[in-house]
Specification:
The protein has six helices and five strands, in the order E-H-E-H-E-H-E-H-E-H-H. With 164 residues, it is an alpha/beta fold. The radius of gyration is 15 Å and the shape is globular. The termini are far apart.
Length: 164
């Protein structure tokens, strides 16, 4: 069985992320959406909220719960992948500017864990301009992000911004 890890902060998950999940599920038997708890970042949404939002979003698009899991992790992605029996790391590319950073990460991960490959998926053209950072900025100014994120993510953003 082929297992892949799709790591990210997902603060919040976007429609571009969901596109990558759906396409990765067509390639791998099992996909683990790995939500990074990065102590260097101050996320808008707690890791628990991000996991809930991702699960609700996956359910809304009809992802099969027996083939996709959502879990938090900290530390090295390759160590998490090894612990979960994954042979691949999934990464999304929006633009050529993403490639340089992603290639560097992939090479470093390959040095740390030679048995784990990185697989890149290009985002759909409709989502190529969307990033979680951009979504948070637009939402914080009251802008409409409903075409950029799934409904559970939009609702979580609204609640988080209202609490500020």
């Amino acid at each position: 069985m082929s297992v892949a890890v799709y790591p990210g902060s997902f603060d919040p998950i976007t429609n571009g992320h969901l596109d990558i999940v759906q396409r990765a599920m067509a390639v791998f038997d099992q996909l683990i959406v790995a939500v990074l708890e990065n102590p260097k970042k101050a996320p808008l949404l707690s890791v628990e909220t991000r996991i809930e939002v991702i699960r609700a979003s996956l359910q809304a698009v009809g992802s099969k719960a027996d083939r996709v899991d959502v879990a938090a992790f900290d530390g090295l992605t390759v160590e998490f992948a090894k612990a979960r029996g994954a042979s691949s790391i999934v990464r999304g590319l929006r633009a050529i500017s993403d490639f340089e950073t992603e290639m560097q990460l992939a090479h470093n991960n390959r040095v740390l864990a030679p048995a784990i490959d990185t697989v890149f998926f290009m985002t759909s053209a409709e989502s190529s301009y969307v990033s979680s950072s951009l979504v948070k900025e637009i939402a914080s100014f009251g802008g409409d992000v409903s075409t950029m994120v799934p409904t559970p993510a939009r609702e979580a953003l609204e609640r988080a911004i209202a609490r500020r």
